[in-house]
Amino acid sequence: MxxxxxxxxxxxxxxxxxxxxxxxxxxxKACCVEFGDEYVIALDKYAITSRAEECVLLAExxxxxxxxxxxxxxxxxxxxLAKLNRSKQEAGAKHWAYNECCSVEDIEVAFSKEGMxxxxxxAEYLGVTVDFLENAINxxxxxxxxxxxxxxxxxxx
Length: 157
Hints:
This protein is mainly alpha-helical. The protein is built from six helices and three strands; from the N terminus they run αβββααααα.
């Protein structure tokens, strides 16, 4: 069975998205850019601490491409409108990534596996970070999804 990271890498290859290991700024671990008809994703694998983090970062960058939410620097990039647009682009990319890596069905399966009583084990099963999984769960809940483990109380977190 392919991991989520491998599935994302395949998706990138199939869509002619090139992924490079590139040292970025100390505060940035990933970014994507468009060059004409091509998309390039840079991942700073020197700064990425785990395959789960790499998966999450790659999913969000592909999400920018899939949702058309690429940030284009302009002279007015610090305006309120530019900040609002960046916020919308970030949200759209994250939502795409949540659906791609932690769909409702994925989450249900991860928590239903024998012995998986918390988000740490479920995140490991899905190949994502705990924070990403918990944000994905909250994202799905914001659309009215109820999970069977919602009745567990503190046990799920």
